[in-house]
Amino acid sequence: MNTFKSTTLAIQHLLAMYAGAILVPLIIGGAIGFDSAQMTYLVAIDIMMCGVATLLQVYSGKFIGIGLPVVLGCTFTAVSPIIAIGTNPEQGITDIYGSIIASGVIVMIIAGFFGKLVKFFPPVVTGSVVSIIGISLLPVALNNMAGGQGAEDFASGSNIALAFITLAIILVVYRFSTGFVRAVSILIGLVAGTILGAVMGKVDFNPVTEADVFHMVQPFYFGMPTFDVTAIITMTLVAMVSLVESSGVYFALSDICNKKLDSKDLARGYRSEGLASVIGGIFNAFPYTTFSQNVGLTRMSGVKDRKVIYITGGLLVALGFLPKIAALTTIIPTSVLGAAMLAMFGMVITQGMGMLVPVMNESAENAMIAAIAVSLGVGVSVVPGIFDALPEKISILTSNGIVCGSVTAIILNILFNMIGPKHKKDPMHGEA
Predict the structure, then answer these.
(1) What are the residue ranges spanned by the domains of the chain?
(2) How far is CA 74 from CA 15, 77, 201, 423, in A?
(3) Alpha carbon distance 338, 127 (integer Å)
């Protein structure tokens, strides 16, 4: 394949994942209260680290790299926990990056035998966790649709109108297009909504004009990392759920590429994701996981050449050195961003539901596991102080909705599905 064709396909892969890649830093930075300069850095470093993580994974070495045409970006499962850590009065930004680094190291250590741990993360557990994360993110999306919490024009008619027009554009493009255009429907909605926002006077171009044309990245931009036990447990659980999801992507790509995977291949893939998180934490970016939308693009195009993904990774790294391009994403009106968030977070919820429905139909036990885990996880997110009276050692597991829901799902799965005699029940009629 010639370089021009490979580069064209690489740009297509970049565009397919770009909206997902930039939304994560925009959501997190906005929730934590970063200014425009910090937001620009956050977006730029995230784009760059997406490229680094992709290059680490597409490479096939002795210790790292799954060696498949896979593109990596920040996992959406990390958004809610990172916001919770960053906005917690007893934690903060430096705890975010300490927990990302620590969880990455833990993943690298357990990579070799994660295949044995994966039995503790069946679909009933991972589906519950993904559902909790998606539901917990909805208030962020809705607040942004209204203009952002604390905004002077919060819930104004113009903000709501702009949000729903953006959402309508996304839905129309998604409904009446196919293939690549459908894959970038959210990106099209963001661009169209921003143009409309500019016409309405809701776009400030100062961050773009003030941003440097080129900058060097620096480690620990937001300060030296600190290591909080609760934050580390939270991000490690998120990392394990992410590894389970990545495993599905690995096998999907191996089927497309006719490459059989063994346990050593999987261990190299997990190790790469752990290393990417460590590097991401050092440079104040995020944990990274495989992006499933690029798998669809690979299947659609039929091009399995890793050279294309190497170019994609290189382009992402190069973009990370160009703050003006990163600053362009920070001028997106908050209500436009909220509309895109609603669509993407809704997809996270339906992804979790998609995992849960088949296993809940298998047995009443699985339905009960999901019911209690999701209810507790979302409940703690909505009423965060409910378990404040518990001893500190226990409150580590109950103060965060995602940790509480995850631990509940794991324990109940062991109790119902791994201990004692196996007996399936019809969910509607008792004993099968």
Answers:
(1) 3-354
(2) 15, 9, 31, 39
(3) 24
